[in-house]
Design goal:
single chain, mainly beta, Immunoglobulin-like, 1 helix
């Protein structure tokens, strides 16, 4: 099968320069003096019947016959015209360049229209021969000349339909020309699918289309249909008209359940630099911050470009987004988007609050933060703090923030738990949910709420008069730790029969260890004597009880020598 691509490449490359063209050896393949190269092979578009071959050879060519084979077939030549030498000249490489042409143009009666691979059969003066296939391409058929113009090349929202008109002239292989009458041409385009367009008796054509934006189109015909040619492209540009929109809400701050109406107007600028006109029949879509990708509603503008609609109920602060004008990718209308913020008050409550104090001064608390009444679709993002005061009426101070939120509870609420170190042995506690303002209209806000107060307490304890002696001693000797344990109840009282741990922290360490224990006397006093544990800081610790808080004494450093 012959390759059209290779032949077209020969033509596209100028059919190769002399000395670098298609080369064949005549007779003996090793005889360099019999080499031949084809400089060009083909016909001018002004007369496709005039087949001409130009060749360079070391030996004089005495005869040449062309062979025309249909592309992409394994067929034999359908025509083998004899070529006549029409010119000879010498080359710089001591070769002869000769030109061979058909005596008369190839007529349509001799060759069907189509693309053909050109081959040549050559006879030299030394009686040797050479046969060279695929030395060029012959596009045999009417050569068409197109003219095409559009009623406008700028399309816009108001002018979306254009009419393209033109004419086609055919140049026959014998050199005669006339209208390409009552034929079909192909319209190729980037703006719609390829289609055929008919010509009339004068070779004229007309087509109406909607480019829908920027693009191009051109008209063409292929030689396999009996004609070949292509028009210059007709380019279209799109005029994007700016769109404006105004929106207002009947209320900016509402109580949950109140109705809100949105009204507005959509206009566009039909003439660049001109005034704005109403945009009727335009769809305005409404989105809310809680679901910004799915419209919450839509409305169509009337003849004056106006619209009005009741917004759906939402339980939480919302920034409404109104989108009008063109949709994404619209070549004619820009997109217009307007935001309108609306605050919806959500009342909250705190129920089931509990608080308890352990011996380590840790307050554990829990409860439920919820909505004061049911509001479909709403949610909470509590900003809880735990507060304490000496009196159930305050003043209140913040003990802890960032309570851990858990499962559902109450009315669309969330459970909360946590713990914190308290500075008071006797105090009142409450959970307080601070008022939360909306965050840019994306998240709702809530009113403040507080729980009932809860009293939590234990006896405060202390270790007083703690002493460690000696402060410096030799290794292996004894040291003594003494002190007194007391508790507070309208004053400090001695606390007897309690276990006190004597603890130490080795030099250079951060961990405390207990060494011995001592039991307090009825006067709360304790004493312990023991061998040293090396250089360390010594102290005493009372771990507390279900009714008493933990207490520790000061630390004293003891140096051990040796």
């Amino acid at each position: 099968m012959r390759s059209k691509v290779s032949a077209v490449l020969v033509i596209a490359l100028g059919l190769l320069a002399a000395g670098s063209g298609i080369v064949a050896a005549a007779g003996d393949a090793g005889a360099a003096t019999d080499q031949i190269s084809i400089v060009s092979a083909g016909s001018p578009t002004s007369s496709v019947g005039d087949l001409t071959v130009v060749a360079d050879s070391a030996v004089t060519i005495t005869a040449m016959t062309a062979s025309l084979v249909p592309f992409n077939t394994a067929d034999a030549a359908v025509l083998s015209p004899v070529l006549t030498e029409t010119g000879t000249t010498s080359t710089r490489t001591s070769q002869t360049q000769s030109t061979w042409s058909v005596a008369t143009p190839i007529a349509q009666s001799q060759l069907p229209f189509g693309d053909y691979a050109i081959g040549v059969n050559v006879t030299f003066s030394d009686s040797t021969t050479a046969s060279l296939p695929d030395v060029g391409v012959l596009a045999y058929g009417d050569q068409l000349t197109f003219s095409a113009t559009s009623s406008t090349t700028v399309v816009s929202y108001d002018k979306q339909v254009v009419t393209v008109t033109g004419s086609v002239t055919a140049l026959a292989p014998d050199g005669t020309s006339g209208p390409f009458a009552n034929q079909s041409i192909t319209m190729a385009s980037s703006i719609e699918s390829d289609t055929t367009v008919p010509t009339d008796a004068d070779g004229d054509f007309s087509v109406k289309l909607s480019p829908h934006g920027a693009g191009w189109l051109e008209f063409e015909a292929d030689v396999n249909s009996g004609s070949e040619g292509m028009s210059n492209p007709v380019d279209f540009t799109a005029q994007l008209d700016p769109v404006k929109m105004s929106v207002s809400l009947s209320a900016g701050t509402i109580t949950y359940g109140s109705k809100v109406t949105a009204t507005g107007t959509v206009t566009y600028q039909p003439t660049p630099g001109g005034g704005y006109a109403p945009l009727p029949g335009n769809t305005v879509k409404i989105y809310k911050t809680q679901n910004p990708y799915t419209p919450a509603g839509s409305v169509t503008t009337n003849a004056s470009g106006h619209f009005s609609l009741a917004l759906p109920a939402v339980a939480g602060d919302t920034t409404w987004t109104f989108d009008g004008g063109g949709v994404a990718g619209d070549p004619y209308l820009s997109q217009a988007s307007v935001k309108a913020a609306m605050k919806v008050n959500l009342p909250t409550a705190i129920t089931g609050f509990h608080a308890s104090l352990n011996r380590d001064w840790q307050l554990s608390y829990s409860g439920c933060v919820e909505l004061a009444r049911s509001m479909p679709g709403s949610y909470l993002k509590p900003s809880l703090v735990i507060q304490y005061a000496a009196s159930p009426k305050g003043p209140w101070r913040t003990l802890s923030v960032g309570a851990k939120l858990g499962g559902a509870c109450g009315n669309q609420g969330k459970r909360f738990t946590g713990s914190a170190t308290t500075p008071a042995s006797y105090a009142y506690y409450r959970a307080y949910d601070r008022a939360v303002p909306s965050v840019g209209g994306v998240e709702p806000g809530w009113t403040a709420a507080s729980s009932p107060t809860v009293l939590a307490w234990k006896y405060a304890d202390r270790i007083s008069g703690l002493s460690v002696s000696p402060r410096s001693l030799s290794a292996g000797h004894n040291l003594t730790v003494k002190g007194q344990l007391q508790y507070y109840r309208s004053g400090w009282h001695d606390y007897g029969s309690q276990l006190v741990y004597i603890v130490y922290r080795p030099a250079g360490k951060s961990t405390w260890y207990w060494n011995v224990t001592a039991k307090t006397s009825s006067a709360g006093k304790f004493s312990a004597t023991f061998k040293d544990q090396g250089s360390a800081t010594w102290s005493a610790l009372y771990e507390g009880s279900p009714t008493h808080l933990e207490a520790g004494g000061p630390g004293y450093y003891v140096t051990v020598k040796g």
